[in-house]
Amino acid sequence: MTKNAFIAITGRPNVGKSSLTNFLVGEKISIVSEKPQTTRNRINGVLTKGDTQFVFIDTPGFLRPKTKLAEHMVKSVRTSVDDVDCAILMADVTKKISPVEQELIRSFAERGTQVVLILNKIDLLKSKSAVLPAIAQYSELYDFEEIIPVSVKNRINTDKILPVLEKFAVEGEHFFPDDIATDRTERFLCSEIIREKLLWTMHDEIPHGTAVEIEQFSQRVNKKGAEIIDLGAVIICEKNSHKGMIIGKDGEKLKTIGTLARKDIEDLLGVKVNLQIFVKVKENWRENERFILENNIADE
To answer: How many CB atoms lie within 10 A of CB 172?
Structure first.
C-alpha cells in the first residue's frame, strides 16, 4: 500500500528551512545563504522511502511585503499551507517569538492545520535546559502535534523528524516518480545555484535586487566525444552602480561567481559545463509583476 505526505515547511526568513529541506531530501535542491529572502519560489523536495513518498514544500520566509516580488513570496507561503497533510513551523530557538510566527500560527488555526514545531539552532544554547522556556511559550500559542528541538547544521536530533512526519502520510498513489528529488527543472536549479554564489560572493554589498535568468541551455559533444552543456546566464540588477559591483575590478567578482557556480552545476548535471555569465540592469524590476512572472522569479 503506497502513501503520500505533503508537508509545508514554513517560518520567518533565515531560520534554516532550506537547509532542513535539503537534509530531509538527501540532496541539495534549495539554495542556502545567511541573507533573508534567499528562497523566492516554492520548491518541492521529494523523498520516496519504501512505500511512502514525502513531498516537502520549501516556502519563502514569511515577511511583510514591500514590493511586488515580496507580495508573490507571501502569497506562495499562504497557498503552500492549503491542503497539506502537515505543516512544519520552523523557528530559531535563540530568538523571541515574533509577529511572523504569530501570523503563521493564526493561519494554521484558521485552516485547522496539523503542525509540527521544529526549534532549530539548539547548538547555540548554553545548556540543554535553555530550550524549555521556548517550548513552553510556543505551547501556549498552539496545540502542536510534536515539538522537536534540533540543530540541522550539526545534525542534532534530526533523526527524530522523519519518523514523526511519517504519521501524517495518507494512502494513495505517489504523485512523482520514485527516483526524483524535486519537480523543479535543471534550468531552474542552475539559475538558483548562480544566485546562491552571487549572494555568497557579494556579502552585504548589494541588496536583494538581483535575479538570474538562463538564456541558453544547450547540449553538444566536443571533438573528443565528451558531452558539454553550454549555459548562458544573465544576472539582473536594479542599478548601474550594482552592475559594476557585481562585475568587480577587472571582472574578478563575476569570475569568482562563475567559478563557484560552475562546480556545483557540473555536480548537478554530471557533465562538463561551459558557463557564460553577463550582467544587465533593469530598474525597479521587483515592482514589475509581468517581468517577475515571465522569468519565474517568483510563483504566481
So the answer is: 12
Q: What is the pLDDT of residues 187-223, one digit of tens each?
A: 988 998 998 899 888 876 665 688 899 999 999 998 8
What is the DSSP pairing of strand 227-237 with strand 272-281? parallel
Indicate the residue type of 170.
Answer: V
CA 176: distance to chain centroid? 19
Of the candidates 14, 8, 113, 116, the residue with the CA atom closest to the CA atom of residue 59: 8
- In this chain, the answer to whether the domains covering 3-171 and 186-294 adopt an identical fold is no
- Cβ-count burial of 9 within 10 angstroms (0-12 exposed, 13-18 middle, 19+ buried)? buried
Q: Is 161 helix (H, G, I), strand (E, B) or coil?
A: helix
Q: For 186-294, which CATH class?
A: alpha beta
- Return the CATH number of the domain spanning residue range 3-171: 3.40.50.300
Cα–Cα distance measured from residue 175 to residue 196, given in angstroms and rounded to the nearest whole number:
29
Is the model's pTM score more than 0.85?
Answer: no
Between CA 194 and CA 242 the distance in angstroms is: 16
pLDDT tens track for 18-45: 899 999 999 888 766 555 555 556 788 8
pLDDT of residue 63: 44
* b/e map 201-230, b = 16+ CB within 10 Å: bbeeebebbbbbbbeebeeeeeeeeeeebe
Where in the chain are the domains?
3-171, 186-294
Average pLDDT taken over every residue of the chain: 86
262 three-class SS = helix
Cell numbers that stand for 110 in this block: 484558521
**Cell numbers representing residue 176 in the block:** 512523482
- Strand order through the sheet with 227-237: 210-221, 227-237, 272-281
